[in-house]
């Protein structure tokens, strides 16, 4: 079963090459969100990273507050906040404030933290990140529902902790958990009946893992008296489209190799393995990305829907493979020609056009007859006068 309406969005880590001015790079990220808001994209999810030099947004909440002032419609999520890095009470309180500031456009995405060197800098071991995420998420969900929490662990101590404000969004703001190939995220999301953000690629092999995680989510949700809904499942993938395949390929030469090198050098998992000479060819051969035309993008998304059983939103990784003008053009092509195919916004127009076309001879004859009748009546009046 596939979703009847597919929402659109981006997953903005972001990724910026080392030779760029970081101030201007962050400003460009804000301009991109504004561009997507004008194009009618539904969501933008903003990452949290503290080292490595390539993903340079340290606080998605600060970014979201700024972006909210510059946009009108697009929803803005933390994609994701690394729960082990924050006291759960303070973080929940901060996100509630963001929910009020944005008038309900904020979304609360969480995860364990993707970069081990981020965690190491504040004394957290990689093996502890996922258990810490589970502890924190359990507390945050309770706080957002208005409960008073007293709980002491090895990394926080809460005594009669209770939020002073409810969420602006009722009953609570929307939440989602990042899930890669590990079942941790699916288990956490299912336990609380909140959304799931599937990251980690969309090659056929990766899609098998995502579908398996959705099965874990469904099973866990039902075991906890929650109702699983594919509307709340978001899948992150990679696109770049242009008017022709040749132009798309030329566009991505701007930054695709630097993106691939970052994941070889720094990222948790290399998207393009060492020893691969051409990232473009590798990603296409492995069906891990779509680099081509709008028609190619439609076929790619349909493969993901068929292979997964359906999901509620497609999130494009904002990778900066192309320069900013070509990147903006990519999103415009997606909004004009790709996304409407999965949002059924053209079908009524097509039916209306077909009806008018199929009956055009009769309608033209009626129109001509009406015009002639008016001419004849005018002539009759003139004659009578």
Pick out its properties:
15% strand; TIM Barrel; eight-stranded parallel beta barrel; alpha/beta; 50% helix; single chain; 385 residues
Whole-angstrom Rg: 25 Å
CATH A-level architecture of the largest domain? Alpha-Beta Barrel
Count of the domains:
2
Q: Find the CATH superfamily of the largest domain.
A: Luciferase-like domain
Largest sheet: 8 strands, parallel, barrel
- Give the structural class: alpha/beta
Quote the CATH topology of the largest domain. TIM Barrel
> What would the principal axes of the Cα set say about the shape?
globular
State the name of the first-level CATH class of the largest domain: Alpha Beta
Q: Give the tally of β-strands.
A: 13
How much helicity do the residues have?
40-55%
- Cα distance, first to last residue? 72 Å
Low-confidence stretches: none
Strand order of the main beta sheet, please? 1-2-3-5-8-9-10-13
Strand content: 5-15%
If helices are DSSP runs of H or I spanning 4 or more residues, what is the number of helices? Answer: 14
Q: What's the helix-strand series?
A: EHEHEEHEHHEEEHEHEEHHHEHEHHH
Average pLDDT rating: 96
Please give the structural blueprint.
Layout: E1 7-12, H1 22-39, E2 43-46, H2 60-70, E3 75-78, E4 81-82, H3 88-101, E5 106-111, H4 116-121, H5 126-144, E6 149-152, E7 157-161, E8 175-179, H6 184-192, E9 195-198, H7 204-223, E10 233-237, E11 239-241, H8 245-252, H9 256-265, H10 279-285, E12 290-292, H11 294-308, E13 313-317, H12 324-343, H13 347-358, H14 360-384
Parallel strand pairs: 1-2, 1-13, 2-3, 3-5, 4-5, 5-8, 8-9, 9-10, 10-13, 11-12
Antiparallel strand pairs: 6-7
Helix pairs in contact: 1-12, 2-3, 3-5, 6-7, 11-12
């Amino acid at each position: 079963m596939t979703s009847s309406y597919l929402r659109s969005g981006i997953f903005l880590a972001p990724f910026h090459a080392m030779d760029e001015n970081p101030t201007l790079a962050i400003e460009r990220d804000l301009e991109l969100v504004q561009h997507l808001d004008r194009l009618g994209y539904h969501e933008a999810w903003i990452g949290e990273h503290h080292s490595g030099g390539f993903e340079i947004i340290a606080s998605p909440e600060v970014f979201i507050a700024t972006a909210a002032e510059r946009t009108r419609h697009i929803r803005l999520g933390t994609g994701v906040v690394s729960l082990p890095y924050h006291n759960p009470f303070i973080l929940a309180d901060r996100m509630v404030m963001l929910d009020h500031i944005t008038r309900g456009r904020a979304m609360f995405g969480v995860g364990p933290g993707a970069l081990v060197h981020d965690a190491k800098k504040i004394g957290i071991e990689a093996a502890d990140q996922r258990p810490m995420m589970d502890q924190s998420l359990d507390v945050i969900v309770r706080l957002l529902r208005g409960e008073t929490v007293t709980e002491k662990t090895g990394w926080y101590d809460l005594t009669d902790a209770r939020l002073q404000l409810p969420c602006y969004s009722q009953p609570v703001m929307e939440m989602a958990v990042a899930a890669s190939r590990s079942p941790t995220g699916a288990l956490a999301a299912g336990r609380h009946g909140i959304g799931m953000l599937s990251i980690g690629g969309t090659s056929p092999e990766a899609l098998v893992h995502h579908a398996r995680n959705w099965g874990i989510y469904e099973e866990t949700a039902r075991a906890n008296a929650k109702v699983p809904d594919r509307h709340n499942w978001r899948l992150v993938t990679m696109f770049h489209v242009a008017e022709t395949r040749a132009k798309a390929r030329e566009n991505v030469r701007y930054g695709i190799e630097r993106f691939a090198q970052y994941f070889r050098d720094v990222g948790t998992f290399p998207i393009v393995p060492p020893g691969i000479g051409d990232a473009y060819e590798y990603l296409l051969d492995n069906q891990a990305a779509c680099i081509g035309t709008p028609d190619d993008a439609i076929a790619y998304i349909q493969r993901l829907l068929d292979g997964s059983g359906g999901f509620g939103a497609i999130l494009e990784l904002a990778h900066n493979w192309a320069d900013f003008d070509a990147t903006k053009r990519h999103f415009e092509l997606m909004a004009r020609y790709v996304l409407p195919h999965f949002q059924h916004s053209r079908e009524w127009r097509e039916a209306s056009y077909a009806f008018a076309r199929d009956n055009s001879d009769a309608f033209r004859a009626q129109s001509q007859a009406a015009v002639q009748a008016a001419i004849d009546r005018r002539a009759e009046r003139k004659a009578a006068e």
